[in-house]
Amino acid sequence: MTTTDIAAGIRSVNHWIGGKACASESGRSGVVWNPATGQAQAAVDFASVEEVDQAVENAHQAFPGWRATPLSRRSEILFKVRELVDANRRRIAEMITLEHGKTVSDALGEVARGLENIEFACGVPNLLKGGYSEQASRGIDVYQIRQPLGVVAGITPFNFPAMVPMWMFANAIACGNTFILKPSERDPSVTMLLADLLKAAGVPDGVFNVIQGDRIAVERLLEHPHVQAISFVGSTPVAKFVYETATRNGKRVQALGGAKNHMLVLPDADIGMAADAAVSAAYGSAGERCMAISVVVAVGSVADPLVEAIQERMARIQVGPGSEEGNEMGPLITREHRDRVASYVANAASEGALVAVDGRRDAACQKSGFFLGLSLLDHVAPGMRCYQDEIFGPVLSVVRAASYDEALRIINANPYGNGTAIFTRDGGAARQFQFDAEVGMVGINVPVPVPVAYYSFGGWKSSLFGDLHMYGPEGVQFYTKAKVVTSRWPDPAASKVDLGFPQSR
Ligand code: NAD
User: Fold this and answer.
1) What is the pLDDT of residues 83-104, one digit of tens each?
2) Which domain does 332 fall in, by range?
3) Which residue is closest in CA terms to ligand 1's atom 36?
4) Ligand 1 center from residue 165 Cα (angstroms)
5) Is the pLDDT of residue 18 over 80?
6) pLDDT at position 45
7) In a domain, 499, yes or no
8) CB–CB of 115/446 below 8 Å?
9) N or C, which end of the chain is more exposed by having fewer CB within 10 Å?
10) With pLDDT > 70 as the criterion, what percentage of the chain qualifies?
């Protein structure tokens, strides 16, 4: 869409380059919808290749000065960023709600979990402490230091427009890199607010930049010779493309993809607690979370009472605009996505599943926004499309398994491996599941096991391409490269030529 196609007078969302907002001259832009009303509310610039190059050049120029900035000063600035984000929690959350659609309380949770990453990065002097081995050989010391990579880029999805950028930029800039963010074009405004806060906190111009746009911007970042590393979070096909393209161009890459998270419920589980967890984790944020539970695997006799308890709870969830007090689930991100999600419910019966609750019948669907009620599909089997695809909406499937072994086989055969959870009162069974599950993040009676910021986040299999998980200690490793120094200060009088390979004496 060109800028002139978008209604005149609409707010525009620009780039942030070199410490200020810059309107695009590309002549291309996208619509930012208000999912709760179905109306266009802003136009977001789509960067040209030249604009990406301009942002990268700014970041490249800013790198030597930032890298040389003392750790204590970088830490002080990050403390200030933390303070400003904390003071603006509500403003950030309301902006997320306006463009994403999630409820304000959910958006506040997103900000809180993002803030954890800034708090972690405040400890950068400690995180970058290297190792030192005195007397590794006679009179020789060996030590390792970690140095920043240079310009690094982050490409983020729509579902966490503030938290996922914080997963990336906090560690990236704390470690001394300069950063280019390419946010989702669907809810981009919050990144401009974050840019403003970073500047107010004292982050020097050029250290943090935002490029708005679509695949043209992404593809330029993946090939730009000054960009050293790419962090990506989004759907699996794009993650795979980003990983393959950027690694081919010699870049370090961590690309987190989609998910299909299973919650295993054993016969001894507390039914009420498991049902509470399933409903919260499946329908929170309208199911648009990469750690949402999308499949309950009910073992044996637990299935019937569990499905009943889930249905009881679903009936009480209030769907409506996320900005209105009392609503627990908002709309989906776009009309097209809502229709795609609804199509899985429409097709489920013909695949052999039982549509226990049909969210298309919810009164909220009559509203003008992109609403869809909560759906429950029972007797789902792994061959069905509703099981195989990542639906990314308020649709929970129930798969019934005869035993723990059968349930485990189903979970481990799934191509995704982001998160999983087990609900049981049996510690031994939970310990066995933790050992057996081929999944990156496991919850034991915890349905959404997003690790705290001082661990790292990442899935296995088709949920992550690359070696290192995101944020926490692995994030620090990702954004730095190791240098090992071997040092001696001998008496020159004892110096002699020795053609032998150096070895400890
Ligand atoms: P998406 O893949 O459509 O977009 C992610 C980013 O990639 C956006 O910035 C977008 O502009 C860009 N992009 C989209 N298509 C592209 C293309 N063809 N070429 C280059 N760039 C492209 O994902 P989304 O719809 O914004 O987010 C939802 C997806 O993200 C879900 O699959 C969800 O599971 C996943 N996700 C995963 C995690 C995780 O940690 N594993 C976290 C959040 C979201």
Assistant:
1) 999 999 999 999 999 999 999 9
2) 261-444
3) 234
4) 13
5) yes
6) 98
7) no
8) no
9) C
10) 98
